[in-house]
């Protein structure tokens, strides 16, 4: 019996060592990545507007918000003959299609009993546009609840002229002060923009698509096909393109205002869907990306694999913290955090993690009013732990949870600009 007990102790010690090494490596890696986002590298901004864009919007029962978006898109600071606006009214039972067409969009209606969700709607719309006689340089994807800064297409044109094929824009918030949930949710996106997306661009890694504010080269989409039908179709297409050697770039000044969920339960449902989708995508792309990184000796692929690993990292971290409560187990494993890593390192990391959120908001000139959300931000972040656990358990469920959008505001209300004169579309 004694040999078996010894074996179990050794296995437990090895498992704990492995968990701790992973936690330390990932923590220090993202801490270092965050530091590199404190400064932006210079970018060329003076390209002439030459790219032709097909702006696409997938909408499901969005009659409350579709018109302000179309009006916003029609007022872009970009030659009007160089972009068209397309809307797919997906399984709509309201006036979304009518209002979008009246506002000036080219509208296609889609009805399908089983193939539901944004991924299928986008694939339908892309196929319709490919079948037209018109050709474009790129597709730009927005959600129906969005509002967009008027120079968005100019920023994307700059990136396309530099040779980038897939570009993600900056995801700002349309309603950051509605509730404490919208405030903390907005902070999470602001931090992601500055300390994750921007550093990846600075290091020439691949960024990740975020579902809206996306620009995809016409030729790339035609070559690869969309084919992204998971609950996180944006992440799925990011990894699909990356496996073909096409990385996603970042446009920090191409700003999209996205509507955040008002209540905590709405945010939980949305984040659970994201967790389910990320675990699903990780199951298909994590190991192939690691293999590709080793074969081609490119850290870019390993960084993408680490992004997909995040739900599992959260589980490992939470499990390790829970095990610390069982003090009787402590004599049976080596605590690497205390034994081998200098305390000064953890002081620096803890200090950085504490000030990074406020620093990210400051560097991107977020209004001071938003900083109040930092008080409750830890609650929002720790709530990810049970959400991810449930997301992993429900990873095979494909039910699409639609978020109802009701915040019908216009761009000038966010930016403080004077409202433009109304345009009449025949």
Set out the fold topology.
Elements lengths: L1 H34 L17 E7 L6 H9 L8 E8 L5 H8 L2 E5 L7 H13 L7 E6 L3 E2 L3 H10 L4 E8 L6 H23 L11 E4 H7 L8 H11 L4 E11 L5 H33 L2 H25 L12 H4 L3 H21 L13 H6 L1 H10 L17 H5 L11
Parallel strand pairs: 1-2, 1-4, 2-3, 6-8
Antiparallel strand pairs: 4-7, 5-8, 6-7
Helix pairs in contact: 1-6, 1-10, 1-12, 2-3, 6-12, 8-9, 9-10, 9-14, 10-14
Would you mind describing this structure in some detail?
By secondary structure, the chain is of the alpha/beta class. It has a domain at 2-39 and 284-393. The protein has 15 helices and eight strands. It has helices at residues 2-35, 66-74, 96-103, 118-130, 152-161, 180-202, 218-224, 233-243, 264-296, 299-323, 336-339, 343-363, 377-382, 384-393, 411-415, and strands at 53-59, 83-90, 106-110, 138-143, 147-148, 166-173, 214-217, 248-258. An eight-stranded mixed sheet has the order 3-2-1-4-7-6-8-5, sandwiched between helices. It starts with a helix and ends in an 11-residue tail after the last helix. Residues 422-426 have low confidence and may be disordered.
Sheet with most strands: strand arrangement: 3-2-1-4-7-6-8-5
How would you sum up the global shape? Answer: globular
Radius of gyration in whole Å, from Cα? 23 Å
Q: Please write the string of helix (H) and strand (E) elements.
A: HEHEHEHEEHEHEHHEHHHHHHH
Estimated structural class: alpha/beta
Number of helices: 15
Helix content range of the residues, please? 40-55%
- Low-pLDDT runs of 5+ residues are 422-426
**Strand fraction:** 5-15%
Through-space gap between termini: 86 Å
- Major beta sheet summary: 8 strands, mixed
Characterize the quaternary organization of these chains: single chain
